[in-house]
C-alpha cells in the first residue's frame, strides 16, 4: 500500500490520486461538488502571489484551494492516466 500525504505537500506537476477528503462537512460538500473525491486525479499547477491559495487542475478545471484545506485532503502518488 502506498504512503498517503496531504495535497498541500505536492510541489511538482505530476498528478496524484485523492484517497480521502477529511475537511469539515461544508467544505467537503463544496469540494465534492467541484469533483474532488476519493479516486479523483489532481495536478498541482502553481501558487498564488503569496503562496496561499494554490491552483490545482481537477477534472479539467482549475480550482484554487487554501493550504489549510489542502492539508486535509490525502493523496497517493500515481495519478498518471
Our estimate of the beta-strand percent is 35-45%
Shape estimate: globular
- Over the alpha carbons, how many angstroms does the gyration radius reach? 11 Å
What oligomeric arrangement do these chains adopt?
single chain
Number of strands: 6
Given the structure, what is the number of helices? 2
Helix percent reads 10-25%
Helix and strand run = EEHEEEHE
Key structural traits:
2 helices, 6-stranded antiparallel sheet, alpha+beta
Describe this structure as you would to a colleague.
The chain is of the alpha+beta class and 81 residues long. Helices cover 16% and strands 37% of the residues. It contains 2 helices and 6 strands; from the N terminus they run E-E-H-E-E-E-H-E. Strands 1-6-2-3-4-5 form a 6-stranded antiparallel beta sheet. It is globular.
Q: Brief overview, please?
A:
With 81 residues, this protein is an alpha+beta fold. The protein is 16% helix and 37% strand.
Secondary structure elements and their pairing?
Layout: E1 5-6, E2 16-21, H1 25-33, E3 41-47, E4 54-58, E5 61-65, H2 67-70, E6 73-77
Antiparallel strand pairs: 1-6, 2-3, 2-6, 3-4, 4-5
